[in-house]
Design a protein that fits this description.
alpha+beta, six-stranded antiparallel β-sheet, two-stranded antiparallel ribbon, about 30% helix, globular
């Protein structure tokens, strides 16, 4: 028996009493959004494929820039190109899944909010 908490199976950060949790693979993205996403959470993903999904539990708006930063930093787009990265975020109730979508793939209803994460911010985060 282990005392492991659900979020310890993912990448996670605790900041200002708020939990930010992200997937590590397609299957963990799927697990995160299907089993742990609440409608008031904020969901982050890069505009390119190969991105982790990150969520801010209970949607605390103070940590939007940090969640966008970690989403960009752990994306394939960053790994492959090392440039500024555009991250979108939406509320949990905007995320949907259809039967014909691949594992780890989700759709978004409505308006997406976009943040451009600068290369310099990602580099300084990855060094910390």
């Amino acid at each position: 028996i282990t005392n492991k908490k659900w979020f310890e199976n993912f990448r996670y950060f605790k900041k200002d009493n708020t939990l930010i949790v992200g997937g590590k693979s397609r299957s963990s993205n799927e697990d995160l959004l299907k089993n742990y996403l609440d409608k008031e959470d904020l969901v982050f993903h890069t505009e390119a494929r190969g991105s982790p999904f990150f969520i801010i539990k209970k949607g605390d708006g103070k940590l939007i820039e940090f969640a966008a930063l970690v989403t960009a930093a752990f994306s394939k787009e960053w790994k492959n190109n090392k440039k500024d990265i555009e991250v979108m975020y939406v509320k949990g109730n905007q995320i949907h899944k259809s039967k014909n979508m691949n594992v780890g793939t989700f759709g978004v209803n409505g308006k997406r909010n976009l943040i451009l994460v600068k290369k310099e911010k990602i580099e300084s985060f990855k060094r910390d």
